[in-house]
Structure to design on (438 residues):
């Protein structure tokens, strides 16, 4: 089993800042004042508004479905799943679903019930398994469903590489002998890398992605705290994207200062890694925006000392001015407290041309904002591997029209199927939604 060495230092400044988009009338437009792209983002001062706890209440869909733009249709791909958090599409089109959740016990569980958090997300025992769905005739409804792997520890990221099936548990990376098309893992797995377990709020997730030639695997690890309040000695190998060889050796920190990087993807036609990052809480309604960013080797993205370039977090004032100066600016702000987690680049041709090469982002939704934000899937248009416009609403309707504090579900993982449709994991309702072009 391998352990990672720590990075020497984090480097460089960055260039582009992103602008606001407040056109809520245009189909697909977003309306957050901290959502935009590549012009000028005006951030409010810390504590410009009071930090609040405002948990949504999940009520289920009750016969309704999410809403996509008029050129698309939405259908239920699978339901009655147990907290389907993440999706991975195998090389042969098999769909793997990681069923896992935050586990709260004792005093922590009582506080979640008292605060309303328990109505907003599942907090019981984690299912700790992976489900296989197979849609052989590609009619949008899988004919086969199998328990592919069980007995895991909060599984999340999945990967097929070199005749192995990789699973990122919260506390380590495992791999299992795998033959394409098998319905269940039967071989004995091996733990090839230790990872720091758990984390602040939902930061137990560990995502996986390989580079194009399969020589490296990248692992996202979220912070253990909101803003370093437990001491940076407890944040070793956290708030990073790690790089390893496929056997778990050669580990290093590829990029750091990323509070909770979850979704990762390669922009089509490029070798540039991108990630969706869930930013910090308790600085007010509009701070700090989540973001989509390219990931630069050795880059430092601010957490916990700064955000969106050299904007110092007042809670860490004066502690690391060197790192504040080095903080890179992400390309696309996605709105404060939206919990932007899922990321999938569109690499098929079934959708209209504007979507090709762009990024879909699953926003799990806020708890630290006076009005709910997120709870939708947004789309960021790309051209030649770079964002060219602000995020647009793509899949909405998760927030109840009748009561804005209630939600039907919470989107998180997103993936592109072989037929070119988009799959969205709604963990709170136990549903996978499929969005296809008409």
């Amino acid at each position: 089993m391998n352990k990672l060495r720590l990075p020497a230092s984090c480097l460089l400044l960055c260039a582009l800042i992103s602008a606001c988009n407040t056109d809520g009338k245009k189909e697909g437009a977003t309306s957050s004042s901290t959502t935009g792209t590549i012009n000028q983002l005006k951030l409010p001062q810390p504590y410009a508004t009071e930090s609040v706890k405002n948990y949504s209440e999940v009520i289920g869909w009750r016969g309704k479905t999410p809403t996509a733009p008029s050129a698309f249709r939405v259908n239920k791909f699978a339901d009655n799943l147990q907290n389907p958090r993440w999706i991975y599409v195998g090389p042969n089109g098999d769909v793997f679903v990681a069923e896992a959740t935050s586990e709260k016990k004792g005093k922590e569980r009582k506080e979640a019930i008292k605060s309303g958090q328990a109505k907003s997300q599942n907090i019981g025992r984690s299912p700790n398994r992976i489900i296989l769905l197979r849609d052989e005739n590609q009619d949008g409804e899988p004919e086969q469903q199998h328990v592919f792997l069980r007995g895991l520890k909060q599984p999340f990221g999945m990967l097929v590489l070199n005749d192995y099936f990789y699973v990122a548990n919260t506390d380590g990376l495992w791999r299992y002998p795998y033959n394409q098309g098998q319905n269940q893992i039967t071989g004995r797995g091996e733990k090839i890398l230790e990872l720091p377990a758990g984390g602040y709020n939902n930061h137990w997730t560990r995502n996986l992605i390989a580079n194009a030639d399969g020589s490296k695997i990248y692992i996202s690890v979220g912070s253990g705290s909101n803003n370093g309040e437990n001491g940076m000695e407890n944040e070793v190998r956290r708030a990073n994207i790690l790089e390893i060889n496929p056997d778990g050796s050669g580990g290093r920190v590829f990029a750091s200062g990323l509070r909770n990087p979850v979704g990762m993807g390669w922009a089509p036609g490029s070798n540039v890694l991108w990630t969706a990052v869930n930013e910090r809480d308790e600085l007010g309604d509009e701070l700090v925006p989540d973001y989509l960013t390219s990931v630069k080797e050795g880059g430092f993205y601010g957490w916990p000392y700064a955000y969106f370039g050299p904007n110092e977090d007042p809670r860490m004032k004066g502690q690391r001015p060197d790192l504040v100066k080095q903080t890179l600016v992400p390309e696309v702000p996605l709105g404060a407290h939206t919990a932007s987690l899922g990321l999938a680049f569109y690499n098929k041709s079934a959708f209209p041309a504007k979507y090709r090469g762009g990024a879909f982002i699953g926003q799990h939704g806020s708890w630290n904002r006076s009005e709910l934000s997120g709870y939708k899937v947004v789309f960021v248009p790309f051209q030649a591997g770079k964002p060219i416009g602000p995020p647009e609403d793509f899949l909405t309707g998760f927030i109840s029209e009748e009561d804005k504090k209630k939600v039907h579900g919470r989107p998180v993982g997103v993936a592109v199927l072989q037929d070119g449709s988009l799959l969205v994991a709604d963990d709170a309702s136990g549903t996978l939604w499929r969005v296809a072009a008409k």
Remarks:
- Residues 57-437 form a domain with the Neuraminidase fold (CATH 2.120.10.30).
- Residues 237 and 251 are 11 Å apart (CA to CA).
